Amino acid sequence: MQAERGWLMLWGAIGGWYSSVGMGKDCKVSDLPSLVSQVRKFVGQYGGALVEQFIQGREFTVLVVEEPGQPDCPRVLLPVECCFGPGEEFKHFDLKWREYEGIGWTALDAAAEPDLDRQLRRLSARAFVALKGCSYGRCDFRVDGAGRVVFLEINPNCGIFYPRDAQGSADVILDLDPL
């Protein structure tokens, strides 16, 4: 399975669809027995499972903010890169909510990577407008080894204004972007 499709990632459908609930390191699978085991776990706990290809590479997050009176021109804030600690490859539940030291954030250097900056901002604005976004939303992307940008999701109600010692990615963006 890995040779044909690459690594697969599992998410809980229905009740486990938010905040990486139920998602552990073991949700990245590369063989059929592991896939079947994880799907059974998610179906049993949450009533369904979403299986998608895992994109190896860099991960970015972009916060988009509605501009009052301009629904087709949202404000797109500074893209930030998720920097994973040793042994970490993706944001699972424990990493996001218990083991904060395994994850860090760095502002994308637009001067060093102008094309990537433009592409992340453009795709984020398009996703927000396409979903008729209001208020704010956070877009997540992976960039593979060939530089291909892959849209993962838009979270239209992402967590924001967490305490300083437990900030989420949207809080980091608000700290780094001069608005």
Structure, described:
It is a single chain. With 179 residues, the protein is an alpha+beta fold. The chain folds into two domains: 2-53, no CATH class; 58-176, D-amino Acid Aminotransferase, Chain A, domain 1 (2-Layer Sandwich), CATH 3.30.470. Helices cover 27% and strands 26% of the residues. It has helices at residues 2-5, 32-46, 93-97, 114-130, 169-176, and strands at residues 8-12, 28-29, 49-53, 58-65, 75-76, 80-84, 103-107, 136-143, 149-155. The strands form two sheets. Strands 4, 5, 6, 7, 8 and 9 form a six-stranded antiparallel sheet that branches. A hairpin with a 5-residue loop joins β8 (136-143) and β9.
Main beta-sheet strand count, sense and barrel state: 6 strands, antiparallel
CATH superfamily grouping of the largest domain: ATP-grasp fold, B domain
The CATH topology of the largest domain is D-amino Acid Aminotransferase, Chain A, domain 1
Helical content band: 25-40%
How many helical elements? 5
Low-confidence stretches: none
What string gives the helices and strands in order?
Answer: HEEHEEEEHEHEEH
Over the alpha carbons, how many angstroms does the gyration radius reach? 17 Å
- Content of β-strand: 25-35%
Pfam families: Dala_Dala_lig_C
GO molecular function, one term: D-alanine-D-alanine ligase activity
Keywords: Signal
Protein name: D-alanine--D-alanine ligase C-terminal domain-containing protein
